[in-house]
Each structure stands twice: as C-alpha cells, then as structure tokens.
Design a protein that fits this description.
389 residues, alpha+beta, Alpha-Beta Plaits, 2 domains, four-stranded antiparallel beta sheet, two-stranded antiparallel ribbon, 14 helices, 10 strands, 16% strand
Length: 389
Amino acid sequence: MKTSLMQEESDSAGLRTFTPRPRRSPSREHSEILPENIFRRILCWERKKAERSDKLFLLMLVNERTGQVNQGGKVLSEIWSALSGSTRETDIAGWYQHNAVLGVIFTEIDEPYKNTVQNLIRANVIAALCATLSAEQVDQIHFSFHLFPEGRERPDGGRLVDPELYPDSVEQEEARKVSRFAKRALDIAGSILALILFSPVFIVISLAIKLTSKGPILFKQERVGRYGLRFTFLKFRSMKCVNDPSIHQEYVRRFIAGETDSLEPGSNQEAVYKIQEDPRVTRVGKFLRRTSLDELPQFINVLRGEMSLVGPRPPIPYELEAYRVWHRRRVLEAKPGITGLWQVNGRSKLKFDDMVRLDLQYARNWSLWQDIKILLRTLRAVLFCAGAY
C-alpha cells in the first residue's frame, strides 16, 4: 500500500486542496512508476469506470522537450521524484511511453470544479518542480492535460475525442492496418457498384420527389463521424422542406434516455428509433423510407471515405448531446456505416442501449466476413421491409 503523499482537505466550496507531505526515498518513488503496459491497461480501466460512474479523471503527460537529455528515463524519474509531493494516494503514475513520456492519472474529480482543479494541479506541479530542479531543466519539461470525458462540443468541427486518452484504440488501429485496407477496398468497390446498378433508380426517385413536393432532391444534414469529426450526410429528401426539427429532437432525446412511455396512451405501437406516422413525411417519402431507398445517396458518403458500408449509424449533433458517456464509444471505435449489426438484429425496434451494445460488439469482433454477412442480411431485411418506418 502506498505511503500517503498528500493530505486532502476540503474548503468551504468543496474543492480539494493538497498539502504536501515529506517525500519518500528515491528508491521507493522510482519503483512506483508503473510499466507502460500496466499503466495503459489501468488507463483503460479508469475510462470504463468513469463511463459508468460519471466521475471525471485527469491524465497529465510529462515529457522532456528535446528528447536528447532524458538519459533513458533518468530525467523523467527525477521529475517524478519532484512530483511525488503533488499527488494523492489514489493517483496513478506510470510510463505512458517507456522512458519517454510519464503519465499521472488524477482520479475522482468533481464536475463543477474540473477547471479549478486542473489549474490547481498545474500550479502545484510547477511549484514542486521549481523547488527541486534547475530553471534550465524546468524549461525543458512539457506538460499536457487531458480530461475524461472530453467536452461534447468543438466549434471548429474538429475531433471530440482526445486520442491521448485511448492509447489502446490507437494500438488496435495499428494492428489492423491490413484489415482496414481490406475494409476500405470493399467500401470503394461496393459503393461504385451500387451507384452504377442503382443509377436508373436514382433518376426515377429524383423525378418523383421533384414532381410531388417543393424543395431539393437531396436532404443534406450535418452528422458526427468517427472521433467526432463532422461531415455532410446525404439522403433522398422524404420530408416537407418547412418542418419543425424540435419534434424529432425531443423524440430522440426521450428515446435515448429510455423514456419509452412517450407514446400515446393506449397505443399498441412499440417505441422505435424513428417516429412512426411522422407528419413531416411526404407521400413519396413514406415509400422511400419503407423501402429504405432514401438511404441510397449514402453510397456517395462511402465513396468519399466519410462512411463505410457497415458500421454504427452516424448521429446528429443534438443526438450526441443526449448520449451518456459510454454511448459515445460508438463514434470512437468504428467508422459510421449505412447498415450495421443492430439493423439486422431487431432494426428500429431495439432500445437505444441495446443498439449501442451491438455497435460496440461489432467494433470489437470486426472481420471482413462479418461485414459481408451483415450486408447480405441487410439486403434481406430491405426486401421484406423489416423494421423500416
């Protein structure tokens, strides 16, 4: 068991302040820098724990700027000696990258005080280093702070996911280079073939939409892709141009929250992912939705590389805002797709949590053969209009 490094006190605002205690002997300190594989595994566990408990943690990464005077981790070990008075018993230190990047996980951070705590930790760490190391050494040290869970909004449309918090996913991606190449090859070949085969259908649908309702043929909407990157999602327009998006926004919010009692009293309908009898849908749109033909333009998204043939459905930004922390893994672990595992296992009749679990199961067990099986099962579901609304 660790010797206590810090005394935790609570001020009137509920913030934790830290009073440094005498540091331990160097041999004791250095032995508690966990090896890279163990530290990364613990980081993964802390993420999963935070997903379920809604508690935040802060990952601090420390490295020497030039990388030339680290001497096999010796300088970073000395840095850890200086930092030992600024960590708690519950905090975890280890090699994020062996002998190159030191990591410290500060656990159990309260949401209202996350920014204050981050600033406090930064100030305490710098003060501890200045008291132990020379000014030249301190100038060569680079810090980065990574809060989990990450913020939900990026005004520049950039990544919502901080890759530094997911070294296990990065490693998995590296290990799957050949598989990812094969999946992309299938996406390109499949989307080109579909666009050629369905080109007459594109013309017929375009004419039907134009002749029966005012507005554009294609419906364009901002969606959230892998790692939270935004892209323009394409569908054949199935709704009237003037409609109230708050209807769908409120419905989806309640569906994600599991509030299945939102249906009309006495109704025999089950709660499904899409609104049944949506008043905004045109007559042609009802047919397109029932047959899933409104999804055909997404083959263009696949060809562009924004989507895959198979993967989790890309959420609308306001859907993402309603996600619980663990739900957001579905935009991290796989590129969004036209169809996926839940579409062939209950389709729109599943609860949202079950949809997410199937998406995560797909990402964990992905194989090219699995994609082919899902595509064949999707074709069957589309032909029989199973679960389409």
